[in-house]
Amino acid sequence: MAPTVRFGTDARGHRHRVGRRLLATALTLLCATATALVSTAAPAQAATTAGIDVSHWQGSINWTSVRNSGIEFAYIKATEGTSYRDPRFNTNYVAAYNAGVIRGAYHFALPDRSSGAVQANYLASNGGAWSADSRTLPAALDIEHNPYGAMCYGLSQAAMRSWISDFLATYRSRTSRYAVVYTTTSWWTTCTGNWTGPWNNHPLWVARWAASPGTLPAGAPYWSFWQYTATGSVSGISGSVDRNHWNGTRARLVALANNA
Question: Is the residue at 125 inside a domain?
Answer without folding.
Answer: yes
